[in-house]
Amino acid sequence: MQHCLVSAGDVGCGVFECFENNSCEIRGLQEICMTFLHNAGKFDSQGKSFIKDALKCMAHGLRHKFSCISRKCVSIKEMVFQLQRECYIKHNLCSAAKDNVAVMVEMIHFQDLFPKGPYVELVNILLSCGEEVKEALTRSVRLQCEQNWGALCDSLSLCSSLAPSPAVSTIEHHRHALSSNLEPEHPRPPRQGDKEKAAKVSFNAHPRNRSQETRRHSLDATEATVIRR
Questions:
Q1: C-alpha dist (Å) from residue 131 to 35, 46, 163, 175
Q2: For residue 220, how far is the Cα from the chain centroid?
Q3: Does the pTM of the predicted model rise above 0.85?
Q4: Which of 33, 41, 53, 171 has the fewest CB atoms within 10 Å around its CB?
């Protein structure tokens, strides 16, 4: 893990990739980074500045703080979530969200809120960014939930934060059960490239839930545009 972080730069999503495929279940940082870069062209100038500065703040902080904390998962998770809050607030996430409500809400997908992780931290901050942002986000997440889980979403509450509610707990239980049932009986052996990638991570690795390789190449031009601004 430490070797991966040292090798990655502060620009792009390389640092966040180091936190994927790990036994601490810290998934979402790379996806958030790639989603911001993929949608950067839809933001106004203030939004673009937020994306550039917040991602750089996160990458720099993760590289330098990881070496100073315990390797226990609880300590790593707390460091990640605290750094998220610090960087998002420092670089005015709420201002960017208020001026770019539609695209910000469009980036949040209901299925990314399970299990609790970086996406939940992002959403919890967005829920504190004023009534317009909160209402738009709540409406979008509820609609996505109803499309997938129907009546289970009736008691879903996003009024203040994404603290677990009975409905959320039930949905998460069914979601994990469904994921387990869809696992192949005889998993394919890892490819050589996967083995080399896993070697960068110092704590136990396991397969990711979804591949983002096809998206990563399409973000290079967008990332360069955001960084130049």
A1: 24, 20, 19, 30
A2: 19
A3: no
A4: 41
Tokens of 160: 């203040």
- CA 173 distance to own-chain centroid: 21
Q: What is the Cα–Cα distance from 198 to 202, expressed in whole angstroms? A: 8
| Model confidence pLDDT, tens digit, residues 47-80 | 999 999 999 999 999 988 888 888 888 999 999 9
Distance, CA of 67 to CA of 44 (rounded, Å): 36
Single-letter code of the amino acid located at 98: K
3-state secondary structure at position 189? coil
CB 90 within 8 A of CB 65: no
78: CB partners within 8 A, 6+ apart: none
The answer to whether 146 and 112 have CB atoms below 8 angstroms apart is no
C-alpha 226, offset from chain centre? 19
* Residue 105 half-sphere exposure toward CB, CA atoms < 13 A: 20
